[in-house]
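Hi P.,

Sorry for the delay on this. The queue was packed all week, but I finally got your sequence through. Input first:
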Amino acid sequence: MPAAELPFAPPLDWESLAAFVARRSSRGVEAVVGGRYLRTVECGGRQGWVAVGPVGHSRLLAEWSETLDPVRDALLDGIRAAFDLDAPIADIESHLGALATLRPGLRVPGAFDGFELAVRAILGQQVSVKGASTLAGRFAAAFGRAIDTPFAELTHLAPAADRVAAAALEQVTALGITTARSRSILALAGEVAAGRLVLEPGGDVERTMRQLVALPGIGDWTAHYVAMRALRWADAFPAADLGVLRAMNEKTPRRAVARAEAWRPWRAYAVMHLWGSLA
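Then the structure:
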């Protein structure tokens, strides 16, 4: 099978990165098995799977299906972004100081698909991580296309925005998703499918976040979480996140934002360390 080694500047806390993704995985679309990250992928109109894991202290080994070989370069760029391999980690940790000392090499996980990540963020509103992952698995089984892979854990592609946008509200709520969140997902899907909302790195982050919060049921927390992972904004800071507030021993987002000024422009990495401190 096709494969490539992806170098990065160490350290990389692969164990924490894999655990973070595993807890938020969508059943059938992605999984962590034996220390390797597995997922189905649609890239450049091609469908297949990838498997990624560490080899040595400064490289990841990526393997992928033959079907994805024609889009190899785009696929490898996506993998690098998904695992934040190009982060100037030494500079970031120096800037964060004591906050980063307990977990050196902690990265901000990206997203293979911005729409998929945004849906997962909506499903995660005011529910447990485990509960949201259960809903994400049902959502993928209902709206993702089935795909054959050599891994029992991988059965579906992540749902595409155009397919979700064509769904009826009742089809979404039937999965156990609340009516309010179902409306949010359908509104999001409509904007992405129409090309009015682009959830990829490299765009105008502030404009995209304004578009997100203009949608029903999407507030500041969701917008910052999407910016942090799908848009790759290194300074995203979901100040209202309960875990962030707890780790900072603060009661209000306003006070958390004020204290987080010292971490600019790397507040997204500070968030990962704050979450990690609760583990």
